[in-house]
Amino acid sequence: MDFSVDPQSQELIDAARDFASRELGADLVARDHRGAKDESDWRGDWHKCAEFGVLGLNVPTEYGGRGLNTVDTIMVLEAIGYGCPDNGLTLGLNGQIWAVQEPIQTFGTPQQKQRYLPGLANGQLIGAHGMTEEASGSNAFGLSTVAERDGDEYVLNGHKTYIGLGPTCDLAIVFATTDPSLGQWGLSAFLVEASTAGFTRGEPQQKMGLRTAPMGELTLENCRVPADAMLGPAGAGQSIFQHSMEWERSFIFASHVGSMARQLDECVAFARKREVFGQPIANYQSISNRLAEMKLRLETSRLLLYRAAWSMDNGGASAAEAALAKLHISEAFVASSLDAIRIHGGKGYLSEAGVERDLRDAAGGVIYSGTSDIQRQVIARLLGV
């Protein structure tokens, strides 16, 4: 596997890190406290990212994107994560790129791609992935949302919850059952615009971490969409979901790897500066060991992320590679965030320092996009056990 970066790509990576450090995450402690109820709190940074080209990194040039390969894309997203302390913002960006834009790029008709990809890439549209329901949870295909054919339209009825960017989305990929007799093979996907009658977005939900990224419910009540709003053929919902999950699980933590790198650098700098008993705490083995563990977690996370990206560019990442990347990086971010708090001591426990926020943000990663336990089951099943 070759992870070498050409000079032009390296220039973009460096520019992304500088841009994120300079332009993103201002007044984050106050915005994290308020949550995502005020759209102005996060839309400004979202549009800055769109103007820089973050949302269009891997979108084909004919639809207004940069057309980068997957390796270069995740390296730029990692750089954004290093420079931007707002993990909610970077999660939202990655969620749209991998769970909304990627399925449209792969399964959309030329008309659907032309209608939605340019707006998603330039920030005029915000997209959500509408799969999860209250009763389904880890049983992703146990959906109650249905879509019934009525002439040249489908009528959708159902309720989605825990939907990232749901409260402010302009477009949602909604998964619904079109043929209950076929079980998961009777699932289809639809591109539903928020302006459609019968489509309602809920208020942002308060949550433990990632507070700057809106998350909420979507309700479909006799929501009529044209038949050509279906993404892919009828019954392809299961395949579309599995495809999007391999992309999402592989790369949704791209920016969080950058956060882990920034976190480590900040901890090293603090450990060198902070003195206890007349010497820097970095001299104490209990501290240096934690720093070494944080470095190990960072590098193994980066390798799993890059390997999955290289695989996607060379034939497609496997379900095992996606599950391994998702499981390891999510758990590593939690562990390193806890170490960061311990290194900073009492200061790390205070909200104003920003250290504890990483731990709250990291905790969600062991749940969304498939829990850590589900990833372990996927890996074990692929081992034949």
Q: Please, could you describe this protein's structure?
A:
β9 (275-276) and β10 (279-280) form a beta hairpin. The chain has 13 helices and ten strands. It has helices at residues 7-23, 28-34, 40-52, 70-83, 87-107, 110-122, 237-251, 254-273, 285-313, 319-344, 346-349, 355-363, 372-382, and strands at 127-130, 146-150, 153-164, 171-177, 187-193, 199-201, 215-226, 230-231, 275-276, 279-280. The longest helix has 29 residues, at 285-313. The mean pLDDT is 94. The strands form three sheets. The protein has a four-stranded mixed beta sheet with strand order 1-4-5-8, covered by helices on one side. It has 385 residues and is an alpha+beta fold.
List the keywords.
four-stranded antiparallel sheet; alpha+beta; 10 strands; 52% helix; globular; 385 residues; single chain; four-stranded mixed sheet
Would you tell me the overall average pLDDT? 94
Number of strands: 10
Please count the helical segments. Answer: 13
Measured as a percent range, the helix fraction is 40-55%
Which residues form runs of ≥5 with pLDDT under 50?
none
What is the string of SSEs from the N terminus onward?
A: HHHHHHEEEEEEEEHHEEHHHHH
> What structural class do helix, strand and pairing data support?
alpha+beta
Shape: globular
What percent of residues are in strands?
5-15%
- CA-atom Rg in angstroms: 21 Å
